Amino acid sequence: MAGHFSFTRTVADGIAASVTGLLGLLGQRRALKIRAFLPAALTPVGTVSGGSGIRLAIVDRRCLYWLHQGLASEPETLAWIGSMAPGDVLYDIGANIGLFSMVAARQQQVRCIAVEPNPFSFAALCRNLLLNDLGERITPLCLALGPQRGLARLGMDSVEAGAVGSTLAADNDSRRSLGTLLLTLDDLPRSAGLPAPQHVKIDVDGIERQIVEGGTDLWASPALRSVLIETMHCSPADRSRIDALLAAAGLHAVAAESSSANTVYRRVAAASA
Description:
A seven-stranded mixed sheet has the order 5-4-3-10-11-13-12. Strands 6-9-7-8 form a four-stranded mixed sheet, with no helix packed on it. Strands 1-2 form a two-stranded antiparallel sheet. About 35% of the residues are buried. Strand 3 (about 90-95), helix 5 (about 100-110) and strand 4 form a beta-alpha-beta unit. With about 270 residues, it is α/β, with parallel strands linked by helices. It has helices at about 1-25, 30-40, 65-70, 75-80, 100-110, 120-130, 185-190, 210-215, 215-220, 235-250, and strands at about 45, 55, 90-95, 110-115, 140, 145, 150-155, 165-170, 175-185, 200, 225-230, 250-255, 260-265. Helix 4 (about 75-80) packs parallel to helix 5.
């Protein structure tokens, strides 16, 4: 695999060097114009593996993962999406380039609020919504969620679209970072006027507890029926805190295979007196 990547990178670098050399024969202004058109002209579009019919713009190499492996890597997420009803509202927190939002919108006729704070992935997300004619059904938001509102720094492991690992940056964070608006989950329906969700998906690589802590009113809403959280990055203490907060609102974890990276919580009706 490493050898294949090295060969591919070498070929790409060689082509880029050849193009740069040819453009050097032109005047600077004309060469810049041509180079400005090249990214859009050369960006490939592929159909996602798995039969969804969804198309993705491959703006960075990280997008290839979502094209070839994204759906196959999370069968429990697809099963959860399949339980949704037409007209339901899904909050997809950590939507990345939008694959699971688009599956829900297209296959289940769900309305989605797709939240992605990484601006590089967010740009690809918006492009994919237009590419699949889903701009009416999915509302993209480029902001971060946490336990309180304010301004924050988003630390990024990579500036490639489709990359993972972006989290709120601590003071000693050495990663590249950008400023971002920080809201709570409760702010979305309460202050932003968005429709209340029936389902919430949280895939944020390490700050799950902080986001859950900002959704006290949302978890208690009778309209909310299920939550899916990628818990593989949670510490035992954070997982216990998440379980307790959701259980207090009547949302309890559904038994899953031990290999699953995600935990599904569903509302359990209180027993009648």
